[in-house]
């Protein structure tokens, strides 16, 4: 049967999007595959269609609970009943039942942490899987080394012998990240499909300010006059709360979103944004992965992103419908130092290495460091991983190297702020690609006309159409230079 016929039978499409068919053909041949497809290019179909052809369980390792739950809900809406998410949303009884009947499901979503649990591994080893998918595979490199080291253990669990093919999916990845993915997943000469990271319909802006409060004043004015839906990214939970509160007082339909909120509250806010009940979200980078909203018109970075990969992922949430969208990067003097501080603030330090060794010497569990308030849970995960991989002196060197890389990554983002050349070209080059064409109104440095992209808020005749945005921004930039 032709793949197009299967595509039409199960999904109602007559043609594949770029890259989908090549990826699927290699998966069906039993080949390991790394696929980089931009947001909105249909990455999930690359494992869903093989799942129907193989008719054996597909295991999808997914980084976020909200992401996997969203994917499960979407599949159920399309009448797929044999799909399950094995995660902490299940109570102990539900978890036991799910694991017992796991072999009956066609699509099994699981977190890296759940995958490492011994009873889950025993069940999976008793099953014949058709495919292992690592969704948002860039997290292996971006998160594994300094946030969730369990990502680095996925390859150990999967093994190399008698396993099905692995499909690693992401929207963006540098050459280094691609190497990390291949290495840590123990992939066997994977076929690689690398789509251009460029999104021509996302127009890149940047604005410079003397002080951080000036940025907030600008956001208040801008959001009150221009149309969403939009996302405003900040680097602190308190900032999301205060800024969203000010916008609400100004009559803007918005909500705060950050990792410290209750998971159900986060899901509720996310769904409100998706269905249009909220026009704006003010969020930390905890928001966005797996948010399938087609018509996001603006992404504003109130704070400097911690690295170029995060920036690319976050602006990629705009314009999934292919229509013109705007990404504006705001900068005030000293933002880079704050970004560096945030980046390394929750890292283990030499004193933590000493304490860890002390607990071991007393035959006590080093994890007691968390309960005793000596270290955060995130920092301990990082410390514990490396203490079981390297000698103590090497761990100290590794932690120092990781901190240096974090600070260097912020400097790379600063190149977007400092450059007078095309922002799009610099961004694409960072990911090891070349820019073939520049769209009209490409970016701030190419003389973008904001008035052609931004529109005034609907149902508000008091605001003039923003055809003069370019002039106003140039005046602000001149005043801050």
SSE layout and pairing:
Elements: H1 3-11, H2 20-28, E1 33-36, H3 45-54, E2 58-61, H4 65-77, E3 83-86, H5 92-100, E4 107-110, H6 112-115, H7 118-125, E5 131-134, H8 139-142, H9 154-158, E6 166-170, H10 175-184, E7 191-194, E8 202-209, H11 212-225, E9 230-233, H12 237-249, E10 254-257, H13 263-274, E11 280-283, E12 298-301, H14 308-315, E13 325-332, H15 335-344, H16 350-361, H17 368-371, H18 377-387, H19 392-418, H20 423-430, H21 469-480
Parallel strand pairs: 1-6, 1-7, 2-4, 2-5, 3-4, 5-6, 8-13, 9-11, 9-12, 10-11, 12-13
Quick description:
By secondary structure, the protein is α/β, with parallel strands linked by helices. Helix content is 44%, strand content 13%. A 7-stranded parallel β-sheet has the order 3-4-2-5-6-1-7, sandwiched between helices.
Keywords, separated by commas or semicolons:
seven-stranded parallel β-sheet; alpha/beta; Rossmann fold; six-stranded parallel β-sheet; single chain; globular
Description:
- There is one protein chain.
- By secondary structure, this protein is an alpha/beta fold.
- It has two domains: 3-194, P-loop containing nucleotide triphosphate hydrolases (Rossmann fold, 3-Layer(aba) Sandwich); 202-338 and 411-480, Rossmann fold (3-Layer(aba) Sandwich).
- The chain has 21 helices and 13 strands.
- It has a seven-stranded parallel beta sheet with strand order 3-4-2-5-6-1-7, sandwiched between helices.
- β10, α13 (263-274) and β11 (280-283) form a beta-alpha-beta unit.
- The protein is globular.
- The termini are far apart.
- Residues 24-191 form the Helicase ATP-binding domain.
- One of its GO terms (molecular function) is hydrolase activity.
């Amino acid at each position: 049967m032709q793949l197009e016929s299967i595509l039409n039978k199960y999904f109602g499409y007559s043609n594949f999007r770029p890259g989908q068919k090549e990826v699927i053909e290699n998966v069906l041949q039993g080949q390991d595959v790394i696929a980089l497809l931009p947001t909105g290019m249909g990455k999930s179909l690359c494992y869903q269609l093989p799942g129907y052809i193989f008719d054996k369980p597909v295991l999808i390792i997914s980084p976020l609970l909200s992401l996997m739950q969203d994917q499960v809900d979407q599949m159920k809406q399309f009448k797929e009943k044999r799909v399950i998410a094995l995660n902490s949303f299940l109570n102990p009884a539900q978890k036991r039942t799910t694991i017992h009947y796991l072999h009956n499901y066609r699509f099994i979503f699981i977190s890296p942490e759940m995958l490492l649990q011994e009873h889950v591994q025993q069940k999976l080893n008793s099953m014949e899987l058709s495919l292992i998918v690592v969704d948002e595979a860039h997290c292996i490199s971006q998160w594994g080394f300094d946030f969730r080291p369990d990502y680095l253990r996925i390859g150990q669990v999967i093994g190399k012998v008698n396993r099905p093919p692995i499909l690693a999916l992401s929207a963006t990845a540098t050459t280094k990240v691609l190497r990390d993915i291949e290495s840590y997943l123990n992939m066997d000469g994977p076929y690689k499909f690398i789509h251009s990271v460029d999104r021509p319909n996302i127009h890149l802006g940047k604005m410079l300010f003397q002080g951080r409060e000036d940025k907030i004043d600008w956001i208040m004015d801008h959001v009150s006059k221009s149309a969403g839906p939009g996302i405003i990214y900040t680097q602190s939970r308190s900032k999301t709360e205060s800024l969203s509160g000010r916008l609400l007082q100004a009559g803007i339909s918005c909500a705060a979103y950050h990792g410290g909120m209750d998971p159900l509250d986060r899901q509720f806010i996310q769904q409100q944004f998706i269905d249009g009940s909220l026009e704006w979200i003010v969020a930390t980078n905890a928001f966005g992965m797996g948010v399938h909203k087609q018509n996001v018109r603006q992404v504003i970075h109130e704070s400097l992103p911690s690295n170029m990969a995060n920036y690319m992922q976050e602006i990629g949430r705009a314009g999934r419908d292919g229509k013109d969208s705007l990404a504006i990067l705001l900068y005030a003097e000293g933002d880079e130092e704050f970004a560096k501080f945030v980046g390394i603030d929750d890292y283990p330090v030499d004193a933590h290495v000493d304490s860890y060794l002390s607990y071991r010497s007393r035959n006590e569990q080093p994890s007691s460091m968390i309960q005793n308030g000596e270290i955060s849970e995130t920092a301990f995960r990082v410390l514990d991983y490396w203490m079981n991989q390297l000698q103590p002196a090497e761990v100290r060197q590794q932690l120092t190297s990781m901190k240096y890389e974090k600070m260097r990554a912020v400097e790379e983002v600063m190149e977007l702020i400092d450059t007078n050349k095309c922002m799009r070209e610099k961004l694409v080059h960072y990911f090891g690609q070349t820019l073939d064409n520049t769209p009209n109104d490409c970016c701030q440095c190419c003389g973008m006309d904001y008035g052609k992209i931004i529109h005034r808020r609907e149902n508000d005749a008091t605001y003039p159409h923003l055809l003069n945005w370019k002039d106003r921004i140039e005046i602000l930039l001149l005043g801050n230079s």
